[in-house]
């Protein structure tokens, strides 16, 4: 359990609760949920430019990372097609993947197909079901994709000033503005209560909030004096109680709750807001193809990790269809901006390609 790990190392309850957010981030789980300790460790593994467990901002925003990957691929001869939706994986008479068919009917032939779409989209929507083992299909259908995340992107006309560390007279970013700011994390019991409300179909009345201000480090993201604020919030159920829809009223009601919480820590925040974009779990699924809105393509619980991700006997990136590989967050070792699943899948695919 996460609580046992944190109790062994720390005494301060606010510090323990702040660390606990990385144990439940993106997960419909409480700090008291068995296995939550692993999710914390998952988020501090690895390194950034030699700093173990470090995180960082991408200069130019996260889109710049995608562009860097695209440029590296293009330099090696890759052809990149955007706005070209895939209809299904093309299979030969021998059952091998032979390419993909686009929605406009175009066939793109290849000896191997790698998919970084979720396992649900890859195997339940893009692959002919008759070519997959029934037990495999059932396993993919049963993957827990519940998501508690609502992402809110905010534009503000001034830097938030927190009661605990007020802004300097010149309004320049202070050290805490350049880090991850955790709100409503005075105790793990607050996180557990927020989780409990969501399990009953209600957005948390005091949600867990992780607030980042990337423009404090990368001024080019916003006009002079203005800033962009990224809010990663939990817990919001994918399906609301009573089957109520996540309509504009529900979206704005939850966002108002989040902003009220921030206002208590940083008076004047609500008055500084000049625009906001609210992405609930259904929005994340519709826009980004995340099943259930889950940012990891599936829960990072112990029954869905290692040799069981995405399914037992299929954790090695190969799928039941020869020549079709899974290389996204739904594969081992799971989610996070690290590229481990893609690198490992590429190595496996290269091994098979050399044999062809």
What is the compact description of this entry?
With 356 residues, the protein is of the alpha+beta class. The protein has helices spanning 2-9, 13-24, 36-42, 62-75, 119-125, 134-142, 188-199, 248-265, 269-272, 281-288, 340-355, and strands spanning 47-48, 51-52, 86-91, 97-102, 107-109, 113-115, 150-156, 181-183, 208-212, 227-234, 273-279, 324-326.
Structural class, from secondary structure content?
Answer: alpha+beta
Second CATH tier, the architecture of the largest domain: Alpha-Beta Complex
- The proportion of residues in beta strands is 15-25%
Which sequence of strands runs across the widest sheet? 8-9-10-7-11
What's the total number of strands?
12
Q: How is this structure best described in words?
A:
With 356 residues, the chain is α+β, with helices and mostly antiparallel strands. The protein folds into 2 domains: 2-56 and 146-288, Polyamine Oxidase, Chain A, domain 2 (Alpha-Beta Complex), CATH 3.90.660; 87-144 and 294-352, FAD/NAD(P)-binding domain (3-Layer(bba) Sandwich). 32% of the residues lie in helices and 15% in strands. The chain contains 11 helices and 12 strands. The chain has helices at 2-9, 13-24, 36-42, 62-75, 119-125, 134-142, 188-199, 248-265, 269-272, 281-288, 340-355, and strands at 47-48, 51-52, 86-91, 97-102, 107-109, 113-115, 150-156, 181-183, 208-212, 227-234, 273-279, 324-326. The strands form 4 sheets. It has a 5-stranded antiparallel beta sheet. Strand 3 and strand 4 form a beta hairpin. Helix 1 (2-9) runs antiparallel to helix 2 (13-24) and helix 2 (13-24) crosses helix 3 (36-42). The protein starts with a helix and ends with a helix. The mean pLDDT is 93. Probable oxidoreductase that may play a role as regulator of mitochondrial function.
């Amino acid at each position: 359990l996460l609580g046992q790990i944190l109790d062994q190392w720390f005494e301060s309850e606010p510090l323990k609760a702040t660390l606990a957010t990385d144990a439940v981030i993106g997960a419909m789980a409480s700090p008291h949920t068995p296995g939550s300790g692993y999710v914390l460790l998952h988020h501090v593994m690895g390194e950034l430019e030699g700093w173990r467990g470090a995180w960082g901002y991408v200069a130019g925003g996260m889109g710049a990372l995608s562009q860097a990957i695209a440029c590296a691929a293009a330099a090696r001869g890759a052809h990149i097609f955007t706005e070209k939706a895939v209809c299904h994986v093309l299979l030969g008479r021998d059952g091998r993947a032979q390419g993909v068919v686009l929605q406009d009917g175009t066939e793109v032939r290849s000896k191997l197909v790698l998919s970084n779409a979720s396992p649900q989209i890859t195997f339940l929507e893009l692959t002919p079901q008759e070519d997959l083992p029934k037990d495999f299909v059932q396993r993919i259908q049963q993957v827990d994709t519940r998501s508690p995340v609502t992402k809110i992107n905010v534009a503000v006309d001034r830097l938030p000033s927190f009661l605990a560390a007020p802004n300097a007279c010149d309004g320049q970013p202070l050290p805490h503005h350049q880090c991850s700011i955790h709100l409503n994390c005075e105790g793990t019991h607050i996180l557990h209560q927020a989780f409990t409300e969501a399990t009953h179909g209600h957005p948390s009345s005091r949600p867990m909030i992780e607030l980042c201000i990337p423009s404090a480090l990368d001024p080019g993201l916003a006009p002079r004096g203005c800033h962009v604020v990224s809010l990663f919030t939990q817990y919001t159920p994918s399906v609301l109680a009573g089957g109520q829809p996540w309509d504009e009223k529900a979206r704005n009601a939850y966002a108002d709750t989040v902003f009220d919480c921030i206002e208590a820590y940083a008076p004047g925040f609500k008055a500084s807001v000049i625009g906001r974009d609210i992405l609930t779990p259904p929005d994340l699924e519709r826009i980004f193809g995340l099943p259930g809105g889950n940012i990891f393509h599936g829960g990072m619980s112990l029954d869905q990790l290692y040799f069981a991700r995405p399914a037992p006997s299929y954790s090695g990136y190969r799928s039941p269809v020869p020549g079709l590989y899974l290389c996204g967050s739904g594969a081992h070792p799971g989610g996070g901006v690290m590229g481990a699943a893609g690198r490992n899948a590429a190595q496996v695919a290269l091994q098979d390609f050399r044999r062809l």
